[in-house]
Amino acid sequence: MLRRLIFLGSALFLAGGLFAQTNPAPAAREKANTTVPNSPDWSEPFPPHHMIGNIYYVGSRGLASYLITTPAGHILINSNLKTSVPLIRESVEKLGFHFNDVKILLISHAHFDHDAGSAEVKKLTGAKYMVMDADVGVVESGGKSDFQYGDDATLSYPPARVDRVLRDGDEVRLGDTVLTAHKTAGHTRGCTTWSLKVREAGQTYDVVIVGSPNVNPGYKLVNNARYPEIADDYARGFRVLKSLPCDVFLGAHGSYYDMEAKHAKLSAGGANPYIDPEGYKAYVAEREQAFLAELQKQTAAAKKQ
Predict the structure, then answer these.
(1) Do 237 and 184 touch, CB atoms closer than 8 A?
(2) How far apart, in whole angstroms, are the C-alpha atoms of residue 212 and residue 188?
(3) Domain tally, the chain
């Protein structure tokens, strides 16, 4: 499998010029893929707003959080930093909803910038916390069992008990809304991409909320004793992402899908810019190319040792 990935990586690397011409990665997106911990925009407020259907943005400028509303209560995706919870709560209430109506808490993956506030959200709302199986241990240890960052005490956070362990393909239902959990591991062992259908102006749209396909600085894709199957998991994750029907492209960081620019267009009126199937395809293709190039580089370096 590894040899096949390396061969594919070489092919895509040689085709890099074509990708650069047809699917350029915006500067904001590249910045997001190399963001250092605790970037200022992670705590910078951003206007809460309606995106499409029953999905609302309630995160900061740099960290995405989504409120999905239903007649039976609401679903919150991503609690973000420990310090993010007051901002998320304020955003929810500015939109006219009650924070204590959040019944289910989900995350994109078990890194402190997406799940450190979960214990506080549970305390304030009583929400049921549902997490992909392979990320449960990290969440319940407050990040201490993470394969990459577990030894760094500065990246630990309050542990939170998981109420439901999810497995790949599981559904989360509340009211008239159904989300499907897709394991797209690699970034974390239980990294989760969410999909759901929404209705807007008489039309039905497929929404995909990408967990993270990014290879962080310092990640070992080759000879990783703590996560031996990491490269295979990334490869499988890209296969999953490419298989999902997507009309509306969202993600764990707004810069994955150029949220700021799209919000400006939304505010100006006209067609909903969050409906962006081609943007989704371009993003996944560019991130897969980056993964395969890094895998090829690390494989070559390992052979020289």
Answers:
(1) yes
(2) 9
(3) 1
- Do the Cβ atoms of 214 and 202 come closer than 8 Å? no
* Tokens read off for 104: 């289910």
pLDDT-based confidence at residue 10 (cuts at 50, 70, 90)? very low
CATH number at residue 262: 3.60.15.10
- The structure tokens listed for 98 are 């009650």
* Range list of β-strands (E), 152-269: 164-166, 171-174, 177-183, 192-200, 203-210, 248-251
> What pTM does this model have?
0.89
**pLDDT tens digits for 242-294?**
999 999 999 999 999 999 999 999 999 989 999 999 999 999 999 999 999 99
Amino acid at 39: S
Per the structure, the complete domain to which residue 184 belongs is given by: 2-304
Comparing CA positions, the residue from 206, 217, 279 lying closest to residue 244 is 206
Nearest alpha carbon to residue 133 among 151, 156, 152, 107 = 107
224-242 pLDDT, tens digit each: 999 999 999 999 999 999 9
Average pLDDT estimate for 188-207: 98
